[in-house]
Specification:
CATH topology: Four Helix Bundle (Hemerythrin (Met), subunit A)
Strand content: under 5%
Bound molecules: protoporphyrin IX containing FE
Order of helices and strands: EHHHHHHHEE
Number of domains: 1
Largest sheet: 3 strands, antiparallel
Number of helices: 7
Shape: globular
CATH class: Mainly Alpha
C-alpha cells in the first residue's frame, strides 16, 4: 500500500450543484483557451504578415507568440486540467494524458524561444538580447518550466529503480512530491500569463507606434482581446486548480474497523487512501 493517510470518506465527491458550476467553469476555460489560440494565429497571419523562417527574421518572430501561447497556455493549461476533468477514470490514464500534453508543450516552448532569439540576432543590425522586463520574466518562466520537467524526469527515473526493490518506498517518495509539483505548475502557469501580457503590451507599442495604439485601431482590439482572455484564464484556472472541492476523488484502498478492545470511543471507520503522483 502507498503512503496512507486518513480523510473523511467521500473526499472529492461533488454535489450536483457543485458539478454544474465546475463543468460550466471548465467550459468557459476551454472557450478562452481555444479562443486565445485562434486569436493569436489570426493576429500574426492577418495583421503581421504570417510566418517565415530565418530568411525573414521579422516574420520569424511571429512564431514566438503563437508557440508560447500554444505551449504555456493551451497545452500546459489542458495538462493541468486533466486531473480535475478525468475524475472517475483510472489514475494511470489521467497521468499518461497529463504527461502527453506536457510533452507537447516542450517543443512549442523550445522553438518559440529559438525563433525570438533568431529574430533579434539575425536582424541587420542585430537587436540586443534580454534587455526588457518581458524577456526577464520570460527567462524566469522558462526556467521554472525546465525545472518542473527535469524534476519529473528525475523523480520518474528514481521511482522506477526504487519500484524494483520496494513499492512502499516509491509510493511515499512520489506522494510527498505531489504538492510541490502541483504548486510549481500553478505558479509557472500564472507567471506565463504575466509574461504573455507584457509581451503583448510591448509588441503593441512597437507595431502601433506614434500614438496609433491610443486611437484603438482594429489590431489593438485583437491584441487587447488576447490579454483579456489571459486575465480570464488566470481567474478561472486559479479557481479550478486551487479549490480542493474540485480535486479528484481518492478511492479507499483499505477500510478498517475500530479495534473492539479499544477503550477510546471510536464512532467512525477509518479509511486509508492511496495518494501518489
Ligand atoms: C510565456 C510566454 C513567453 C515567454 C516565456 C517569452 C519569452 C521571451 C524571451 C526570453 C524574450 C527575449 C528574447 C531576446 O532577448 O532575444 C522575448 C522577447 C519578446 N517577446 Fe516573448 N515570451 C512569451 C510570450 C510572448 C507573447 C505572447 C508575446 C506577444 C507578442 C511576446 C512578445 C515578445 C517580444 C515583442 C519580444 C522582443 C522584445 C523583447 O526582447 O522583449 N512574448 N520573449
Amino acid at each position: 500500500m502507498g503512503r496512507s493517510h486518513r480523510q473523511s470518506y467521500g473526499g472529492g465527491e461533488m454535489s450536483v450543484a457543485a458539478s454544474l458550476v465546475f463543468y460550466f467553469l471548465v467550459f468557459l476555460a476551454e472557450i478562452l483557451m481555444f479562443g486565445l489560440l485562434s486569436l493569436v494565429l489570426f493576429w500574426v497571419v492577418y495583421y503581421r504578415g504570417g510566418f517565415k523562417w530565418r530568411e525573414d527574421p521579422a516574420r520569424e518572430f511571429n512564431f514566438h507568440p503563437v508557440l508560447m501561447v500554444a505551449g504555456f497556455i493551451f497545452f500546459m493549461g489542458h495538462a493541468m486540467l486533466v486531473y480535475r476533468l478525468f475524475r472517475c477514470c483510472n489514475k494511470l490514464t489521467a497521468k499518461l494524458l497529463h504527461t502527453f500534453l506536457y510533452l507537447l508543450a516542450v517543443p512549442c516552448i523550445v522553438v518559440g524561444v529559438i525563433t525570438v532569439f533568431d529574430s533579434h540576432n539575425l536582424r541587420v543590425p542585430p537587436i540586443p538580447n534580454l534587455y526588457s522586463l518581458h524577456s526577464w520574466l520570460g527567462l524566469v518562466t522558462v526556467g521554472l518550466f525546465a525545472l518542473q520537467v527535469t524534476h519529473t524526469l528525475v523523480v520518474g527515473f528514481f521511482s522506477f529503480w526504487l519500484l524494483l526493490c520496494c513499492e512502499q518506498g516509491t509510493a511515499s517518495f512520489r506522494s510527498g512530491l505531489v504538492p510541490v509539483h502541483a504548486t510549481f505548475g500553478i505558479i509557472t502557469f500564472m507567471l506565463a500569463i504575466a509574461t504573455c501580457v507584457t509581451g503583448y503590451t510591448e509588441k503593441a507599442f512597437f507595431v502601433m507606434s506614434n500614438g496609433l495604439y491610443a486611437q484603438l485601431p482594429d489590431e489593438a482590439w485583437v491584441v487587447n482581446a488576447q490579454a483579456a482572455c489571459l486575465a480570464g484564464l488566470a481567474i478561472l484556472m486559479g479557481f479550478l486548480l486551487y479549490s480542493s472541492r474540485y480535486a479528484r476523488a481518492s478511492h479507499p484502498v483499505a477500510i478498517v474497523d475500530p479495534p473492539s478492545n479499544s477503550h477510546y470511543v471510536m464512532t467512525q471507520k477509518t479509511y486509508y487512501y492511496r495518494d501518489q503522483m
